């Protein structure tokens, strides 16, 4: 669809009017509940990611710079200028590939808004739990809406919907908590566009910049709101101008309706999946199929001759299966997180997948690596032409040395999808596991107080009690 828009207002105007016209009372109850879950989940992801490769290095860099003690670095018992706190915390929240995914837009939205909301609210003070929830929900919504518009998948164009679109969402979240008016918020959107960046090459190569870029995008959005508040203006035709986002980054191939239709009625936050496994969401159906196999029968990896994993379409295959030789022996944890052969082998070796499977020590496990070399991914023709948001079932086939063949197919949607939601017990277990993986563990009593505070965040008229529980 080509968008020749004669003289209509830029779509960014509609988004700004929507976010500034929406109050906490306007949020549907299920949207509030989802936002609360995502805030808690993302905080857990952030603490767990504090010791992941690249994160301590950036935290040390930021602490060394010093500056105003505005917002805390989660897990580091220190405060730094707000934009730097956003950078570190957002990087940590993405580092272990545990943060939520908006599957229709093929992007991570919460890591672009939750760390921003926490850091900005602490900086400005005098904000309520309802303010925090509203700003987070609206920032996520804008990120998701923008990610749904491009007609060419990120796996084809190389443009990262996550890194690019969450820059705008972060600016929304920060701007709302800073109390920006309409004109200033529009400037913030323009300034955010001036900083938009991010591509898929980091994912393809398994570079640490995948997680760092997540933090930079969030930081850019927060900085955009800060600059706008200081009186810096930005371009106004941000999305649909002659050199607007959709024309420059997406060759003017986008669906405007995905951005503006049904605002306030159709909430994309309802379509976000919670990730139970610390790897690329594309691989979760494969992990589920393997879990079904290993729960039904004990399998000795030494008895496995070969493994066939059918992938749903070419775009996903390119990201998590190529180049095959590299994916079969990942050099870094970041690379392993996007590798079907490694994840398949690790899940078969241990009957599941945990954070322990993504450490330097785990990557040196020759038993897993030997099995990974026997994992052959392929494209299932019946899935080939499905739309990018389909995420259909994975089909795993094990050929044993005895000649016996074992097969398993996951459900149509992986665990954590809105149609296959995790139970509250499973979500809490994930949060506790993440908090226990932090460099410095909270005492059990402190963890229970934090859980109780986060679950009733909408009742908090003063957030100071929350900051005290977040070391």
Structure description:
With 471 residues, this protein is an alpha+beta fold. It has two domains: 11-273, 2-methylcitrate dehydratase PrpD (Orthogonal Bundle), CATH 1.10.4100.10; 281-409, 2-methylcitrate dehydratase PrpD (60s Ribosomal Protein L30, Chain: A, 2-Layer Sandwich), CATH 3.30.1330.120. 51% of the residues lie in helices and 7% in strands. It has 23 helices and eight strands. It has helices spanning 11-20, 29-48, 55-65, 82-95, 114-124, 129-148, 154-157, 161-178, 182-195, 201-205, 209-229, 245-250, 256-260, 284-296, 314-321, 324-328, 333-336, 340-350, 360-363, 366-372, 424-436, 444-455, 464-468, and strands at 71-73, 78-80, 101-102, 272-273, 304-311, 375-379, 395-400, 405-409. The strands form three sheets. The chain has a four-stranded mixed sheet. A two-stranded antiparallel ribbon has the order 1-2. A hairpin with a 4-residue loop joins strand 7 and strand 8. Helix 18 (340-350) crosses helix 20 (366-372). The radius of gyration is 22 Å and the shape is globular. The chain starts with 10 loop residues before the first helix and ends with a helix. Residues 384-389 have low confidence and may be disordered.
Task: Give keywords.
2-methylcitrate dehydratase PrpD, 471 residues, single chain, alpha+beta, 60s Ribosomal Protein L30, Chain: A, 51% helix, 23 helices
């Amino acid at each position: 669809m080509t968008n020749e828009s004669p003289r209509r207002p830029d779509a960014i105007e509609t988004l700004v009017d929507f976010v500034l016209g929406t109050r906490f009372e306007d949020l549907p109850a299920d949207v509030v509940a989802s936002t609360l879950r995502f805030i808690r989940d993302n905080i857990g992801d952030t603490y767990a990611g504090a010791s992941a490769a690249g994160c301590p290095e950036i935290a040390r860099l930021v602490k060394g710079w010093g500056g105003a003690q505005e917002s805390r670095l989660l897990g580091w018992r220190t405060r730094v200028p707000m934009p730097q706190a956003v950078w570190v915390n957002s990087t940590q929240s993405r580092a272990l590939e545990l943060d939520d995914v908006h599957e229709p837009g093929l992007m991570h939205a919460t890591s672009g808004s939750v760390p921003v909301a926490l850091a900005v609210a602490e900086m400005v003070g005098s904000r309520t739990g309802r303010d925090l929830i509203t700003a987070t929900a609206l920032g996520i919504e804008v990120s998701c809406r923008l990610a749904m518009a491009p007609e060419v998948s990120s796996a084809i164009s190389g443009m990262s919907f996550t890194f690019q679109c969450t820059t705008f969402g972060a600016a929304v979240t920060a701007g709302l908590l800073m109390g920006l008016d309409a004109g200033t918020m529009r400037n913030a959107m323009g300034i955010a566009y001036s900083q938009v960046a991010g591509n898929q090459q980091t994912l393809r190569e398994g570079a640490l910049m995948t997680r760092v870029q997540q933090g930079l995008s969030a930081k850019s959005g927060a900085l955009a709101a800060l600059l706008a508040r200081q009186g810096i203006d930005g371009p106004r035709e941000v999305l649909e101008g002659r050199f607007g986002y959709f024309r420059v980054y997406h060759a003017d191939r986008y669906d405007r309706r995905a951005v503006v239709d049904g605002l306030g009625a159709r909430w994309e936050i309802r379509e976000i999946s919670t990730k139970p496994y610390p790897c690329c969401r594309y691989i979760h159906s494969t992990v589920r199929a393997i879990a079904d196999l290993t729960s039904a029968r004990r399998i000795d990896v030494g008895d496995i001759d070969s493994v066939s994993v059918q992938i749903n379409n070419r775009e996903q295959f390119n990201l998590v299966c190529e180049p095959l030789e590299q994916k079969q022996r990942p050099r870094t944890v970041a690379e392993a997180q996007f590798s079907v052969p490694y994840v398949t082998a690790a899940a078969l070796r241990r009957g599941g997948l945990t954070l322990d499977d993504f450490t330097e020590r785990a990557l040196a496990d020759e038993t897993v690596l030997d099995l990974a070399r026997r994992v052959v991914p392929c494209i299932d023709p019946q899935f080939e032409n499905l739309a990018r948001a389909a995420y259909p079932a994975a089909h795993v086939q094990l050929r044993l040395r005895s000649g016996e063949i074992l097969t398993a197919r996951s459900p149509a949607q992986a665990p954590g999808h809105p149609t296959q939601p995790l139970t509250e017990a499973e979500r809490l277990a994930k949060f506790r596991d993440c908090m226990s993986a932090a460099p410095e563990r909270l005492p059990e009593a402190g963890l229970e107080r934090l859980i109780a505070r986060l679950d009733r965040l909408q009742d908090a008229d003063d957030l100071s009690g929350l900051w005290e529980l977040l070391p």
